[in-house]
Amino acid sequence: MKQVIVNPEKCVGCMQCMLACAVAHSRSESLFAAVQETPKPRARVHVGAGMFNQGFPNRCRHCDPAPCQLACLTGAIFRDAATHTVFVNPDRCINCASCAMACPYGVLRFHEHAAAPPGKTVAVKCDNCDARVARGQIPACVEVCKTGALVYDEITHAMNEKTRQVARTMSADAAAQGLPDTVALYNTLKQAAVKAGAAIRR
User: How large is the greatest C-alpha to C-alpha distance in the chain, in angstroms?
Assistant: First the structure.
């Protein structure tokens, strides 16, 4: 099952994901109309500054088991069996913040929003853009991310790609530092064999 994967090293802190998220969760789903809405739509992904002031897009991981769900006193937080997404039922939320204290990532916020009863402050978190995904779209934050800091992919495929990236980086670093002659010769022969195999398959 696909989910939003965060590549924090690619984030430039532009905050386009936050804007897109807020608009996607507005009543109108239009930027120009959303700014006139009450309550104002707010983002469910939060870009913070990392150790070296680089951007970090922080969002709900939909943990399994989810600490927020286990801590919820009223059963307002539940997991959808089909999508495995963790949701908040605003009608049952009592704004006690038990979920926020249990969340290891600090992604829950408390405010009014379009789906909650008027005037009621409730827990709000990422819902994986379930309405957009049901329409065949990808999550709003991923759609606007131009650097690849947020991608929508199968977790196994994404981790395999990450492994390949790390391997390429490590290989490049090793080559830059200079390899023993025997290792350099081995790598040269291996690359030649790969190219020859590709040529034969063509």
Answer: 72
AA letter at 163: T
Cis peptide before 65 (omega within 30 of 0): yes
Radius of gyration of the chain (CA): 22
Indicate whether 27 pLDDT > 90: yes
Tens of pLDDT, residues 137-155: 999 999 999 999 999 998 8
The pTM score is 0.77
**Structure token digits, residue 14:** 């532009």
Q: Is residue 191 part of a domain?
A: no
Residue 177: alpha-carbon gap to chain centroid: 35
Do 131 and 119 have their domain in common? no
CATH number of the domain that 80 lies in? 3.30.70.20
d(CA 190, CA 27): 57
DSSP state of 118: T
Q: Which two tokens stand for residue 48?
A: 């913070």
Structure token pair of residue 199: 């040529």
